[in-house]
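Incident log, support desk, overnight shift.

02:14 A customer reports that sequence design results differ from what the structure should imply. Their input is reproduced verbatim below. On-call engineer (initials T.W.) acknowledged and began investigating.
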């Protein structure tokens, strides 16, 4: 199912007639309350769809890629979408449109999810459907809070329906936010069906595997308060890192043993149309080249941002030299991750684009780009591009099985199971070696694209031990999951903040972004350090 409908939570209904003689006895004429509205299962599903719809504008790459050493902002120049550069350098102010937009988007998801979660327990339709809808909403609410806490720290913990009388909503401690997220996810895991439990018409819904993997990501974030010196020093949150890794191991084991997922045979297919919702997909945000009934775009708004400026796109999120040089020339994943001038061809057309000249010589090598390289994972052939740039029918890949395997490898390492850790990493590397060139790699092949063989592919097994093994696991995560919005969060959770482009600025702000000035003033919130 392509989930895209957006509905108001309180519905203006039909005017109800009454035989009462005293008009003061009439209750909310002309308004259908949520209790009544959601008692219809179709309406309840519509309400849930509005929660999914609120996730659609999540610009994953702004934080996961651009804030890391894997990408620079890009665009048409230094001033193009400059708010993103301020976020990257940790010099944003409380009026920053990027962080403010993310804050609003996540709370929009939370408020809509709360309405579903708090209203549905009283409905009288099928209990199994009711409980599943609530569980899906808890997954989405947990996902929103997981984004807020890692970017902003302690935030207002809103669990009840808001009214105009709610003026002061204080920030909750980080520990309370994490406890709440994990409670939501545990309750979702207990109820949600596996991926195979849904029919094709329900493609894209939260599953048991997705809830487990989101909990894994949250547990990884929690380890930050042990490994990241900035977060450990600035937060009162103390974690039992051994217990966290044990739970990561348990949850990833459950996903692996479920039999619901496996690696796609060919890495090059994952981000093509045929790769949407494939055997490796754990969770994707579904998009369509259309508008909903209120005229709102429900297509993917981020794809055009990463395209070539001389061809179709806006050239944001440009891969750095550091990312490019992480791969060996014999690793097929390189060509399926990065394209540009030195690779020559994309969908049969030569890629020669050096007019932008993103050479940076006045900053550290962590911010260095010498070629016109772009993100291949979300590149589109001309015939697949919608006429409205911000309305592409391309799903955002949020969680993949490869991430599960690599996270399980890391948890195995921390449990002292080094042999298992190497085995799971090498599963991912073996798939990489057996993969092909990406579609459209042959000059002049402008239609009928084929997956041509990758001559000389070699991604040998890792054999490292000890801390070298841990470094190899981290490196494998970087190469396998590059440009998927994960790198920054891996850096900060592992405490390798020296890899950040602006380490000193990150440290001076306790690793957090500014809260929006409007909500700081309206709700009496304490602003983050040095903003």
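02:41 Re-run completed on a clean worker. Output:
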């Amino acid at each position: 199912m392509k989930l895209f409908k957006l509905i108001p939570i309180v519905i203006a209904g039909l005017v109800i007639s009454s035989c009462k003689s005293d008009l003061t006895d009439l209750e909310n004429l002309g308004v259908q309350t949520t209790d009544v509205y959601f008692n219809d299962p179709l309406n309840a599903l519509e309400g849930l769809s509005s929660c999914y719809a609120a996730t659609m504008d999540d610009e994953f790459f702004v934080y996961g890629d651009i804030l890391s050493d894997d990408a620079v902002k890009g665009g048409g120049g230094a001033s193009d979408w400059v708010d993103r550069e301020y976020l990257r350098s940790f010099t944003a102010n409380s009026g920053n449109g990027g962080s403010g937009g993310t804050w609003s988007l996540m709370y929009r998801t939370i408020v809509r999810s709360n309405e579903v979660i708090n209203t549905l327990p009283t409905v009288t339709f099928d209990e199994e459907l009711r409980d599943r809808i609530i569980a899906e909403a808890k997954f989405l609410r947990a996902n929103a809070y997981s984004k807020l806490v890692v970017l902003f720290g302690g935030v207002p913990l809103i669990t009840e329906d808001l009214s105009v009388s709610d003026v002061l909503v204080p920030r909750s401690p980080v520990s309370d936010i994490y406890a709440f997220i994990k409670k939501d996810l545990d309750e979702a895991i207990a109820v949600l069906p596996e991926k195979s439990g849904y029919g094709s018409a329900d493609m894209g819904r939260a599953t048991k595997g997705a809830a487990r993997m989101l909990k894994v990501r949250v547990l990884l974030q929690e380890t930050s308060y042990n490994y990241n010196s900035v977060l450990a020093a600035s937060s009162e949150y103390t974690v039992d890192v051994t217990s966290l890794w044990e739970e990561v191991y348990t949850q990833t084991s459950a996903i692996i043993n479920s039999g619901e997922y496996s690696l796609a045979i060919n890495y090059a297919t994952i981000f093509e149309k045929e790769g949407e919702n494939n055997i490796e997909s754990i969770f994707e945000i579904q998009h369509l080249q259309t508008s909903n009934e209120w005229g709102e775009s429900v297509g993917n708004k981020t794809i055009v941002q990463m395209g070539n400026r001389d061809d179709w796109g806006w050239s944001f999120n440009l891969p750095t030299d550091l990312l490019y040089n992480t791969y060996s020339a014999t690793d097929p994943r390189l060509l399926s991750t990065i394209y540009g001038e030195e690779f020559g061809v994309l969908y049969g057309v030569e890629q020669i684009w050096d007019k932008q000249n993103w050479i940076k010589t006045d900053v550290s090598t962590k911010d260095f780009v010498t070629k016109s390289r772009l993100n291949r994972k979300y590149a589109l052939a001309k015939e697949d591009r919608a006429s409205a740039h911000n309305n592409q029918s391309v799903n955002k890949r949020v969680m993949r099985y490869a991430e599960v395997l690599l996270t399980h490898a890391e948890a195995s390492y921390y449990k002292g199971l080094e042999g298992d850790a190497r085995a799971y990493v090498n599963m991912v590397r073996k798939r990489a070696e057996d993969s092909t060139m990406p579609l459209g790699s042959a000059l002049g092949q402008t239609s009928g694209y084929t997956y041509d063989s990758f001559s000389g592919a070699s991604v040998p097994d890792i054999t490292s031990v000890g801390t070298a093994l841990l470094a190899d696991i981290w490196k494998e995560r970087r190469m396998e999951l590059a440009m998927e919005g994960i790198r920054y969060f891996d850096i900060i959770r592992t405490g390798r903040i020296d890899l950040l482009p602006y380490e000193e600025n990150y440290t001076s702000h306790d690793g957090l972004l500014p809260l929006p000035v409007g909500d700081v003033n309206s709700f009496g919130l304490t602003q983050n350090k040095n903003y």
